Amino acid sequence: MHVTHVSLADFRSYESAELPLEPGVTALVxxxxxxxxxxxxxxxxxxxxxxxxxxxxxxxxxxxxxxAVVRVAIQRDERKAMVELEIVPGGSNRARIxxxxxxxxxxxxxxxxxxxxxxxxxxxxxxxxxGRRRFMDDLLVLRAPRFAGTRSDYEKVLRQRNALLKAAGxxxxxxxxxxLSTLDVWNTHLSTVGADLLFGRLYLVRALTPLVxxxxxxxxxxxGTATLTYRSTLGExxxxxxxxxxxxxxxxxxxxxxxxxxxxxEEQRTAELDRGTSLVGPHRDELLLTLGGLPAKGYASHGESxxxxxxxxxxxxxxxxxxxxxxxxxxxILDDVFAELDASRRERLAELVSGAEQVLVTAAVxxxxxxxxxxxxxxxxxxxxxxxx
Amino acid sequence: xxxxxxxxxxxxxxxxxxxxxxxxxxxxxDPVDVRRLVAALTEVIDKVRFCVSCGNVSAEELCxxxxxxxxxxxxxxxxxxxxxxxxxEKTREFRGxxxxxxxxxxxxxxxxxxxxxxxxxxxxxxxGEVTEIILATDPNLEGExxxxxxxxxxxxMGLRxxxxxxGLPVGGDLEYADELTLGRAFEGRRLLDV
Lengths: 389, 194
Ligand SMILES: Nc1ncnc2c1ncn2[C@@H]1O[C@H](COP(=O)(O)OP(=O)(O)O)[C@@H](O)[C@H]1O
Ligand SMILES: [Mg+2]
Ligand SMILES: [Zn+2]
Fold this sequence. Notes:
The structure holds two protein chains of two kinds.
Chain A: E1 2-11, E2 14-20, E3 24-29, H1 36-48, E4 68-76, E5 79-87, E6 94-97, E7 100-101, E8 114-117, H2 122-126, H3 129-143, H4 147-173, H5 183-220, E9 226-231, H6 254-267, H7 269-275, E10 286-291, E11 294-295, H8 296-299, H9 302-321, E12 331-335, H10 343-353, E13 358-363, E14 376-381, E15 384-387
Helix pairs in contact in A: 3-5, 4-5, 4-7, 5-6, 5-9
Chain B: H1 2-9, H2 16-28, H3 31-47, E1 49-50, E2 57-58, H4 64-67, E3 72-79, H5 82-91, E4 96-100, H6 118-125, E5 132-135, H7 141-154, E6 160-163, H8 179-187, E7 190-191
Parallel strand pairs in B: 3-4, 3-5, 5-6
Antiparallel strand pairs in B: 1-2, 6-7
Magnesium ion binds near residues 37, 336 and 362 of chain A.
């Protein structure tokens, strides 16, 4: 698939902007702070309903206004579609598909698929587990949009259960009897949604692992083996090493995962009451990234960490591309990444993505865009967008 | 004037701006209309109270539905708020009686079973007249959790416990479901397995 047109209203620095696009490579070029990332961020938002830069939606709306609108025209084989998202921080977003409103904004997920590379990706490798969980869940939702509901339900149940544990802990410390009469109910709901999320993640990691290994080999020219391991708080046997025999690796079914989660909550009950928070479940799980048997975080060099980050994105692209027919191929977005990479990683990344249906690249100067990615060019200065090639 | 604006601002769905607009509207209205509003408000607080049996708003000690002998006393429909009773009555699908909980379980808001009319519900069931309970709490997380809680509490009493059929907009309020959907949800209610 590819994007044929982007319109913005009150998104970030743009009061309004119109950008026609074509398949193949388009470089968005302009000095820093001119609005290049803002443009590709908007496209990425339509695909994932979240920004790759900020966790809250408030900064996405132009200062002094209340809501932003992003409209994207998509071409998928011969089919055309238009997706419009109205971003309302502190409220519910609204979406339209081909000008008809949909019930919930998340019903518009899946219309556009993107894989976005950005300087922030390095934090997936070097940063907190939270970034790796987000990486998995974002990709899961891109692949199977119904998981957007699972993810948001899980967060809601978790907040309720944590509030209950916190209140109970407080009552206990004050010498009162804690009211735990609804804990079982929250356990039921958390384990049901949690098992679904965990199931989705385990499947995802299983499919992604061989692709990550292959992508890392390509990016690093055979320097070491990259592996993913899902570390579940439900026990080491869940999500064990999957690289060796990916085909024989079995993802337990949801019912088993649900029972395991209930059991783990039972075992952790005292600790959960002491800490006043939920200690088991997907929100505490970790995606371990290893390089030649050692954890990438803390061991890998800066260059190796970058190779791993690129491998995660490249493998995401491969995974999405392999879903169903050719039109499933996502749009590739490379936001300011070439400036971060050394010469050899630059060239290899450029080669690997040059055959994609559509690639959008941002760069401060045209020289930052590798030769292999020569194509269309759009200049971005002070929020005005001009196609020069 | 500021007092009035502040008071209006406490009403649900009325922000500071709307409160100001309403206050100025009242100021410019015909005093006769305003007195009628005042009279209606006074009457509500003086005469309307909550039914001692079901908790629904009522003019009498026992509400019209609870005192209506033609209603089926064997089926009890449990809802969160009085406004849900109004919504269900509009469908004309249901001929039993109601029990209004006064909210839903939500630890975040500090609402547990003791803050709802759960004890009153259990007391009401003691006579044995009721044989089926329909849990018609909202189709959102808190409503579902409340339904699960009640189903587990009531199951040992040997009652038939059912939940409104799905098809209601998930994440929503019962009162916003249209009459047809709500009516169908009643027909297609399912046994709760807990
Ligand atoms: N919500 C907003 N309202 C107005 N301006 C914004 C908003 N968010 C970001 N900006 C402005 O957008 C510019 C950054 O644009 P960006 O696309 O990140 O630049 P670059 O071209 O370097 O990628 C900054 O000047 C910033 O002040
Ligand atoms: Mg930028
Ligand atoms: Zn009554």
